[in-house]
Design goal:
By secondary structure, this protein is an alpha/beta fold. Helices cover 22% and strands 26% of the residues. It is built from 5 helices and 8 strands. It has a 5-stranded mixed beta sheet with strand order 4-2-3-5-8. It has a 3-stranded antiparallel beta sheet with strand order 1-7-6. A hairpin with a 3-residue loop joins strand 2 and strand 3. It is globular, with a radius of gyration of 15 Å. The N and C termini lie far apart (46 Å).
Protein backbone atom coordinates (compact mmCIF):
# COMPACT_ATOMS: atom_id res chain seq x y z
CA UNK A 1 0.00 0.00 0.00
CA UNK A 2 1.40 3.40 -1.00
CA UNK A 3 1.87 5.84 1.88
CA UNK A 4 0.16 9.23 1.48
CA UNK A 5 2.65 12.06 0.94
CA UNK A 6 2.36 14.66 3.67
CA UNK A 7 2.51 18.31 2.66
CA UNK A 8 5.30 19.85 4.76
CA UNK A 9 4.55 22.81 6.99
CA UNK A 10 7.02 25.50 8.07
CA UNK A 11 7.38 23.67 11.38
CA UNK A 12 8.30 20.39 9.64
CA UNK A 13 10.71 22.14 7.28
CA UNK A 14 12.48 23.74 10.25
CA UNK A 15 12.66 20.38 12.08
CA UNK A 16 14.10 18.80 8.91
CA UNK A 17 16.63 21.62 8.52
CA UNK A 18 17.81 21.15 12.12
CA UNK A 19 17.85 17.34 11.63
CA UNK A 20 15.43 16.87 14.52
CA UNK A 21 13.44 13.62 14.30
CA UNK A 22 9.65 13.85 14.60
CA UNK A 23 6.50 11.83 14.09
CA UNK A 24 3.40 13.24 12.41
CA UNK A 25 -0.06 12.72 13.90
CA UNK A 26 -3.13 13.71 11.91
CA UNK A 27 -6.76 14.08 12.99
CA UNK A 28 -9.95 15.22 11.30
CA UNK A 29 -10.53 18.96 11.65
CA UNK A 30 -13.40 21.10 10.44
CA UNK A 31 -14.82 24.56 11.18
CA UNK A 32 -17.53 22.86 13.26
CA UNK A 33 -14.85 21.05 15.28
CA UNK A 34 -12.83 23.91 16.75
CA UNK A 35 -12.78 22.70 20.34
CA UNK A 36 -9.24 21.77 21.42
CA UNK A 37 -10.48 19.12 23.86
CA UNK A 38 -12.34 17.23 21.15
CA UNK A 39 -9.37 17.48 18.78
CA UNK A 40 -7.09 16.13 21.49
CA UNK A 41 -9.46 13.21 22.08
CA UNK A 42 -9.16 12.08 18.43
CA UNK A 43 -5.36 11.69 18.52
CA UNK A 44 -4.10 8.23 19.36
CA UNK A 45 -1.60 9.41 21.96
CA UNK A 46 -1.85 10.04 25.69
CA UNK A 47 -3.45 13.40 26.45
CA UNK A 48 -0.64 14.11 28.96
CA UNK A 49 1.85 14.61 26.10
CA UNK A 50 -0.35 16.92 23.99
CA UNK A 51 0.52 20.59 24.35
CA UNK A 52 -1.25 23.63 22.89
CA UNK A 53 0.49 26.75 21.66
CA UNK A 54 -0.77 30.12 22.87
CA UNK A 55 0.53 33.53 21.87
CA UNK A 56 0.46 36.44 24.28
CA UNK A 57 1.80 39.99 24.30
CA UNK A 58 3.94 41.34 27.12
CA UNK A 59 4.01 45.04 27.93
CA UNK A 60 7.83 44.96 27.68
CA UNK A 61 8.74 42.08 25.35
CA UNK A 62 5.88 42.18 22.85
CA UNK A 63 4.75 38.78 21.49
CA UNK A 64 5.64 35.69 23.53
CA UNK A 65 4.77 32.04 23.01
CA UNK A 66 3.53 29.59 25.63
CA UNK A 67 3.28 25.82 25.20
CA UNK A 68 1.13 24.21 27.88
CA UNK A 69 -0.64 20.87 28.33
CA UNK A 70 -3.78 20.88 26.17
CA UNK A 71 -6.16 20.34 29.08
CA UNK A 72 -4.64 23.05 31.31
CA UNK A 73 -5.08 26.81 31.47
CA UNK A 74 -2.36 29.43 31.10
CA UNK A 75 -1.55 31.49 34.20
CA UNK A 76 -1.00 34.96 32.70
CA UNK A 77 0.54 36.36 35.89
CA UNK A 78 3.07 33.53 36.00
CA UNK A 79 3.85 34.02 32.30
CA UNK A 80 4.36 37.76 32.90
CA UNK A 81 6.73 37.03 35.79
CA UNK A 82 8.69 34.36 33.87
CA UNK A 83 8.97 36.51 30.72
CA UNK A 84 10.12 39.69 32.44
CA UNK A 85 6.87 41.57 31.87
CA UNK A 86 4.67 43.43 34.33
CA UNK A 87 1.54 42.48 32.38
CA UNK A 88 0.70 39.92 29.71
CA UNK A 89 -2.46 39.70 27.63
CA UNK A 90 -3.46 37.14 25.03
CA UNK A 91 -2.75 38.21 21.44
CA UNK A 92 -5.95 39.22 19.64
CA UNK A 93 -7.09 36.42 17.33
CA UNK A 94 -7.22 38.85 14.38
CA UNK A 95 -3.47 39.47 14.82
CA UNK A 96 -2.40 35.81 15.08
CA UNK A 97 -1.68 35.09 11.41
CA UNK A 98 0.11 38.37 10.66
CA UNK A 99 2.21 37.98 13.83
CA UNK A 100 3.08 34.26 13.66
CA UNK A 101 2.26 33.10 10.13
CA UNK A 102 -0.16 30.57 11.61
CA UNK A 103 -3.93 30.48 12.05
CA UNK A 104 -6.03 29.50 15.08
CA UNK A 105 -6.03 25.76 15.51
CA UNK A 106 -2.78 25.41 13.58
CA UNK A 107 -0.34 27.54 15.55
CA UNK A 108 2.97 25.78 16.13
CA UNK A 109 5.73 27.00 18.44
CA UNK A 110 8.12 25.93 15.66
CA UNK A 111 8.60 27.89 12.43
CA UNK A 112 6.85 31.16 13.26
CA UNK A 113 7.60 34.26 11.18
CA UNK A 114 9.99 35.44 13.92
CA UNK A 115 11.70 33.75 16.85
CA UNK A 116 9.61 34.96 19.76
CA UNK A 117 10.52 34.24 23.39
CA UNK A 118 9.06 30.78 24.04
CA UNK A 119 8.03 29.36 27.39
CA UNK A 120 7.24 25.67 27.74
CA UNK A 121 5.26 24.46 30.75
CA UNK A 122 7.35 22.66 33.36
CA UNK A 123 5.09 19.61 32.92
CA UNK A 124 7.14 18.79 29.79
CA UNK A 125 10.23 18.14 31.94
CA UNK A 126 9.07 14.67 33.01
CA UNK A 127 8.06 13.56 29.49
CA UNK A 128 10.01 11.48 26.97
CA UNK A 129 8.04 12.99 24.11
CA UNK A 130 5.43 15.66 23.52
CA UNK A 131 3.00 16.56 20.77
CA UNK A 132 2.54 20.12 19.47
CA UNK A 133 0.87 21.60 16.42
CA UNK A 134 2.70 21.03 13.15
CA UNK A 135 1.50 24.41 11.87
CA UNK A 136 -1.68 23.20 10.17
CA UNK A 137 -5.11 22.37 11.52
CA UNK A 138 -5.45 18.64 11.98
CA UNK A 139 -1.71 17.98 12.03
CA UNK A 140 0.61 17.56 15.02
CA UNK A 141 4.29 16.70 15.44
CA UNK A 142 5.76 14.55 18.18
CA UNK A 143 9.21 15.60 19.42
CA UNK A 144 11.25 15.30 22.61
CA UNK A 145 10.96 18.17 25.09
CA UNK A 146 14.72 18.78 24.72
CA UNK A 147 14.38 19.08 20.94
CA UNK A 148 11.45 21.50 21.30
CA UNK A 149 13.42 23.59 23.80
CA UNK A 150 16.39 23.60 21.44
CA UNK A 151 14.56 24.51 18.22
CA UNK A 152 12.50 27.28 19.89
CA UNK A 153 15.31 28.46 22.18
CA UNK A 154 12.64 27.99 24.84
CA UNK A 155 12.63 27.91 28.63
CA UNK A 156 10.93 25.39 30.92
CA UNK A 157 8.77 27.37 33.37
CA UNK A 158 5.81 27.00 35.73
CA UNK A 159 3.04 28.82 33.81
CA UNK A 160 -0.14 26.75 34.22
CA UNK A 161 -3.01 27.12 36.67
CA UNK A 162 -2.85 24.44 39.31
Amino acid sequence: MKKKKVQKTNAMRQLDKEKIPYLIHEYAWSEDHKDTDRSVDTLEVSEQIIFKTLVAVGNITGPIVACIPAKKELDLKALARESGNKKVDMLHMKDLEKTTGYIRGGCSPIGMKKNFPTFIAIEAKSLDKMVVSAGKRGMQVEVTPDDLLSITNGSLVDITDK
